[in-house]
């Protein structure tokens, strides 16, 4: 009986130490991760009711700090189609933004084992926007007034991070962009998901 009790206590201690070790492996200072994400823009569907595209995709790299905050550096493509109603009927006019981003993120909520973490962040963005892929004349001969432009602005983001293991993280992401220099509109809302892999 005493032998069984000792074994139970020993197993409990090993499990506790293992849990502590697993926790310690998450968000260590200097850890670097890479990730990919994809999602929708200004809505919940990647194609609207008129077959208009509205999506985004991106890649990023993350570096963790001592207090489990982290820096992120990434690149994104955002695509949104606008509908032009000319005398020849409806025509889709694509708008695309290519942006680079640098941001700082802070975890605000987490469970005891840090299996799930909620982080908020702010970032600066620069990039380029093109409308109709630089084509200025529409199908019915109308001239497109929106011009291509260099972009600058920022974003506020919220990410729900779920650890599948110490090195693999699933993400549910929300981001609100503000790009005052955009000719087609300053604000875009992004919703999506992604995966992040810690590489060191």
Structural account:
It is a single chain. This protein is mainly β and 200 residues long. The chain is 12% helix and 57% strand. The chain has 1 helix and 8 strands, in the order αββββββββ. An 8-stranded antiparallel beta barrel has the order 1-2-3-4-5-6-7-8. A hairpin with a 5-residue loop joins strand 2 and strand 3. 22% of the residues are buried. The model is unreliable at 10-24 (pLDDT under 50).
Mean of the pLDDT scores?
Answer: 85
Strand order of the largest sheet: 1-2-3-4-5-6-7-8
- List unreliable stretches of 5+ residues: 10-24
Q: Which term fits the overall shape?
A: elongated
Count every helix, treating DSSP H or I runs of 4 or more residues as helices.
Answer: 1
The end-to-end distance, rounded to whole angstroms, is 45 Å
Give the helix/strand class. Answer: mainly beta
The proportion of residues in beta strands is: over 45%
> For the report, how would you describe the main beta sheet?
8 strands, antiparallel, barrel
Number of strands: 8
The helix content is 10-25%
Q: How do the SSEs run, as a string of H and E?
A: HEEEEEEEE
Please give the radius of gyration in angstroms: 23 Å
